[in-house]
Amino acid sequence: MTASPFRSILIANRGEIACRIIATARRLGYRTIAVHSPVDSCSPHVRLADDAVLLGPDAAAQSYLSIERLIEAAMSSGAEAIHPGYGFLSENADFARACLEAGLVFIGPSPEAIAVMGDKAVAKRRMVAAGVPCLPGYQDSDQSDEAFLAASSSIGYPIMIKAAAGGGGRGMRRVENEAELIAALPLARSEAQQAFGASDLILERALDQPRHVEIQIFCDSQGHAIHLGERDCSVQRRHQKVLEESPCPAMTDALRAKMGAAAVLAAQSVDYVGAGTVEYMLEADGRFHFLEMNTRLQVEHPVTEMVTGLDLVELQLRVASGAPLGLTQKDIRLAGHAIEARLYAEDPAQGFLPCSGDIERWIAPAGEGIRVDAGIESGSAVSPHYDPMIAKIIAWGPSRAIACQRLEGALQATGIAGLQTNRDFLLAAVREPAFQSGEATTAFIGEMLPGGEFKPAGLPGGVLAAAGVLQLRQAARDALQTANALPAALLGWHSAGRLTSSFAYRIEGMDLPVTASAVSLGRDAYRVQLADNFHLVEIITESPGQARLMIDGKRQRARFEHLDRARIFLMIGDHAVTLGNQVGAPQARGETAASGQVAAPMHGLLVEICIATGDRVAKGERIAILEAMKMQHEIRADLDGTIREIGQASGSQVKSGQLLFVIEPDTTKQDDAP
């Protein structure tokens, strides 16, 4: 790599991508500067950087999305370049322009290229002119309902409505006929305006079961352009990627060459420089259609790195310094297979509702072919202000089958105590026959969850029994420390025989009694009773945080941590769970009937109130929209009644559990009863 015109880089981002960029930049000798909000002041990316600058309040609009504050941070810290990462301002042409005007190197494409590709309508018109295959659609400036109706008749239903100015599923709707189109247009415009500040829409012919396949491209300022193969990102939920892999299971050498050439052509048509991704819809017959171009590093870039052996951040820094890529298309070879799973702080059992809170314990997997990109650690806080993705688990193997097997094992070895994650859902998705066979399309999750809900498997009795035994043994060790010359073998025994310890674990709102006692003096075996069932648990070996167990005659490995005297975090097989002994603890409340007291389900911004005081509402009716972790969530009435109180105004920041509405129950049915 030739001498660079910059030696210090400010990373205008946070979390795992900031950590990942800092790692490569420091390896290459660059000085790194992190930026952060108050809630991120102790985050790993701040500690890893050489310097750090406080941007402003926690709200992204006043910190990570503030162009003015980021430029001030760069100038005050002596940064000579800015890397935007992904998300936030990474595809904002005004930010790229502001960097250049301040004399800073923007590690990305030109503002002009970002602007063209950031507008779906403009981008698609440019791609049609360049000869890049595109779906039939409508992307003209006339945004009237009449123009959309006429275009839809020509395109043919079903139709996809999309926000012209953004992505991520915001403003996106599928319509099957003219009546649905008329109803969906105002909603799509409203979502687009709220999310991107522009209400313009485009239309595309909808495909039923395509693959979502993207091509990684790289261009330098000397005119060299190559592609680095493809990634299959078909496994998506609400148009958000969940599993990504390289290469695509359906790819052939001829098709890869054809799609790669089209991607390079797309980039060259806008004089692109840097890393970019051209996304396509790929049909079963091999036809592919331009979807959009992401003018930044992608979340899923690690799978490309693992099959090519290249460091994409290093290539970004090389190109941004003005040096040639130093690679030709013939130099690119794909070896093996890599799959990435995105770990989100969300509760799949509650409609994938994003979660925030403290991570009490983070256990990252390790092993051959395993890579973990994370911006968290034990003690980290997951804030409601930012995206709920907290880590990426990536597995490589010489074949796709081995990569799948390694990813499954890595997910089993992944643990977070303190908040819910989608780990169990990821495990279930990776094990689905359609994914195992490489046949997953964009319809995969809809077919896997036909009702839209994921129900995790219940906890086996053996897991609960093991938890009870491990807690019993820890209590015995604690007692031994305070005992006066008592042999360890006699703990749990008295002159009449063995002592029985009682626990209670809260499972699905109910307290389950657990009793455990040693089987015989001097042997690490225990008899455990759960309700009317009995289990035998024997400790084969135990060391801090790990144990080999025999549970009902079956050998099991366990990882665990005693979070405090009452709670244990335990991982056995597919199960990772925090269990708290309820004996002596304050009585937890079970599920209560609908009360009409409607509280915020999480921290967030109350972006819309759909009702007024005095309005009659029906149970399940939408009464407000809360925005949290880059997503919008509907708040619905929990019973039939009349709105008597509205506790917060539209535009307010609210806290989890904060009272928003009071609904007076509808008693008409009771009054009319005979």
Automatic annotation (TrEMBL):
It holds the Pfam family Biotin_lipoyl. Residues 124-321 form the ATP-grasp domain. SMART domains: Biotin_carb_C (SM00878). Its cofactor is biotin. Transmembrane segments: none annotated. The keyword Electron transport does not apply. The keyword Ligase applies. Gene3D superfamilies: 2.40.50.100, ATP-grasp fold, B domain. Residues 5-450 form the Biotin carboxylation domain. Keywords: ATP-binding, Biotin, Ligase, Nucleotide-binding, Transit peptide. Residues 580-664 form the Lipoyl-binding domain. It comes from the Bacteria. One of its GO terms (molecular function) is ligase activity. Signal peptide: none annotated. PANTHER family: CARBOXYLASE:PYRUVATE/ACETYL-COA/PROPIONYL-COA CARBOXYLASE, METHYLCROTONOYL-COA CARBOXYLASE SUBUNIT ALPHA, MITOCHONDRIAL-RELATED. This is Geranyl-CoA carboxylase alpha subunit. It comes from Maricaulis salignorans.
